[in-house]
């Protein structure tokens, strides 16, 4: 049995980790970490866990936790994991960090986009970017996983085959993305109040969103090793969960639907959690909600010679907790899909 500790178990991503791990046959949660609810029953914070979780919330003492847990998930705000981790902890246990602290290899880029001083730059190089479909073999050997961002997972997986196979002009990539409000976390913020969000949709972080350099870096590795430059515009939509990506890029070759479909099948045909949809079917967030699936598809526009790529995913599952458990399974030598085969829920 893998012993698991969660720092930030009372946040949206943390509670989704709890939900998934309760259905995992090889994992046992030994630590429900919190900042605000220490010593309170976890099931009194999340009442869906009544009679399912009999444990109290604990602090964020990562030194102590590292002696008890085989894997620690940090589902905490940006900067916290980097401020807690040290060599002793990493020699005791493995860490899957759901924040962005170890996602970006260039520390100056991280500090600029996050407006934070990085507290553990010495671990950035060894951290493995935990996008399982792309970095599977490196993840298996890692002790520190940088779990990818929600918008980034959907954007990268949607575009990766086209960039890797050099089918698009990478200078023309535009990513338009939408997220449900759980993407913003549980913390109270005026911008996320019901009346501010309901019956409205808005772009935010236009040209400045922190996921931009993460997508640029990862797609750059798929292309020529250096970061690309893209436009990325996120939007907040009045739904609880879900990410929808629509991306555009100019084709560099005359290709048919069948040519591009063959490329997507090459990369994702055997992937359990990436579903390339049938011709003409557009991904929808409602068909992936509550699951670890990413649905992708594309349409060629012969008028503009662009390809339009679409991806849909649950931000809390494949965009956070599901992918984190997928990473845990890989580093612990467990079946990659264990605990993650729940079908999407609807309605
Ligand atoms: N929401 C999403 O869709 C996604 C989130 N993520 C990432 O996961 C992380 C968590 O996000 P999310 O769950 O949305 O955020 P929430 O705001 O919902 O939760 C944050 C969690 O961190 C805890 N926390 C906050 N500050 C501290 C601290 N100083 N010490 C210890 N614990 C602390 C909170 O504890 P308490 O509530 O007890 O105060 C809470 O459990 C973030 O890095 C986020 O970027 C990644 C992908 C998607
Ligand atoms: C709707 C919303 O606010 N979304 C968050 C991104 C989600 C998230 O938590 O970011 P990571 O995936 O990097 O951890 C945002 O725009 O900052």
Automatic annotation (TrEMBL):
Query: Which reactions are catalysed by this chain?
Result: N-acetyl-L-glutamate 5-semialdehyde + phosphate + NADP(+) = N-acetyl-L-glutamyl 5-phosphate + NADPH + H(+)
Q: Where is the Semialdehyde dehydrogenase NAD-binding domain?
A: 3-142
Its cellular-component GO annotations read: cytoplasm
Say which domain of life the source belongs to.
Bacteria
What is annotated as the active site?
150
Family, similarity comment: Belongs to the NAGSA dehydrogenase family. Type 1 subfamily.
This protein's name: N-acetyl-gamma-glutamyl-phosphate reductase
Protein species of origin = Wujia chipingensis
GN (gene name): argC
């Amino acid at each position: 049995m893998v012993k698991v500790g969660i720092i930030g178990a009372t946040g949206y991503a943390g509670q989704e980790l709890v939900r998934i791990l309760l259905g995992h046959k090889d994992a046992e949660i030994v630590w429900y970490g919190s900042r605000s609810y220490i010593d309170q029953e976890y099931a009194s914070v999340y009442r869906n866990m009544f009679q399912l979780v009999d444990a109290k919330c604990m602090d964020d003492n990562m030194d102590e936790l590292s002696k008890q847990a085989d894997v620690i998930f940090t589902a905490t705000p940006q900067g916290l994991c980097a401020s807690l981790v040290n060599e002793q902890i990493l020699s005791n246990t493995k860490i899957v960090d759901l924040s962005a602290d170890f996602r970006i290899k260039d520390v100056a880029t991280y500090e600029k986009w996050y407006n934070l001083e990085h507290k553990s730059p010495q671990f950035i190089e060894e951290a493995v970017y935990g996008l399982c479909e792309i970095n599977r073999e490196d993840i298996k050997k890692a002790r520190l996983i940088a779990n990818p961002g929600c918008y980034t997972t959907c954007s990268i997986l949607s575009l990766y085959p086209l960039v890797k196979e050099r089918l698009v002009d990478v200078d023309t990539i535009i990513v338009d993305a939408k997220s449900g409000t759980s993407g913003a976390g549980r913390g109270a913020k005026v911008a996320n109040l019901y009346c501010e969000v309901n019956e409205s949709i808005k772009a935010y972080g236009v040209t400045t969103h922190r996921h931009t350099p993460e997508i640029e870096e990862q797609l750059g590795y798929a292309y020529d090793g250096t970061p690309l430059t893209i436009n990325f515009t996120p939007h907040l939509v009045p739904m609880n969960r879900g990410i929808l990506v629509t991306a555009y890029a100019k084709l560099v070759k005359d290709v048919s639907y069948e040519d591009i479909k063959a490329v997507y099948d090459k990369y994702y045909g055997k992937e359990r959690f990436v579903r390339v949809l049938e011709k003409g079917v557009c991904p929808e967030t409602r068909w992936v909600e509550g699951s670890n699936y990413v649905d992708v598809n594309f349409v060629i526009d012969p008028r503009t010679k662009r390809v339009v790529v679409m991806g849909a995913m649950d931000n809390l599952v494949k965009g956070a907790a599901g992918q984190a458990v997928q990473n845990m399974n890989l580093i612990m030598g467990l079946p990659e899909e264990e605990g993650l085969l729940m079908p999407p829920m609807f309605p």
